[in-house]
Specification:
The chain has helices at about 5-20, 25-40, 45-65, 75, 85-100. By secondary structure, the protein is an all-alpha fold. The chain has one domain (about 5-100).
Length: about 110
C-alpha cells in the first residue's frame, strides 16, 4: 500500500496544477494517480480519478474553451473528438469496471 500516499500526493498536485491553469501537467498527474490506483487494484480510487477528470473537463469547457485539449477545441483540430480530461475519465471508468469484472477476479 505504499502507493496510497503517492496517490494522494498526485491528486493534490493535480488540483494545484489545475488551479494554476497548467492543464497539461494536471492531466499527467491525474493519469499517474490512475496508474497508482490500478497497481493497487483499487476500484474506489479509479472512480475518484474518473470524477475528478469529469469535473475538470467541465471546468475547462467553461473557463478555457480554447485550451488545446478542451472538449470544444479538440474536434476542431481533427485529432480527436474529445478533450483530454474526457478521455481520462473514460479510461478511469474502464479501469474501475475491469477491476470489478470476472476477468480480473478469476481467483
Amino acid at each position: 500500500m505504499a502507493s496510497t500516499g503517492i496517490f494522494h500526493q498526485l491528486i493534490e498536485l493535480n488540483g494545484q496544477a489545475f488551479t494554476e491553469g497548467s492543464y497539461d501537467k494536471a492531466s499527467y498527474l491525474l493519469t499517474a494517480a490512475l496508474f497508482c490506483a490500478r497497481s493497487e487494484a483499487d476500484q474506489g480510487r479509479c472512480i475518484q480519478v474518473e470524477r475528478i477528470a469529469a469535473a475538470q473537463s467541465h471546468l475547462i469547457n467553461e473557463l478555457a474553451p480554447d485550451y488545446l485539449h478542451s472538449s470544444e477545441a479538440a474536434p476542431k483540430r481533427a485529432i480527436c473528438n474529445q478533450g483530454i480530461f474526457d478521455l481520462l475519465a473514460q479510461r478511469a471508468h474502464g479501469t474501475a469496471s475491469y477491476l470489478n469484472s470476472p476477468l480480473f477476479n478469476f481467483g
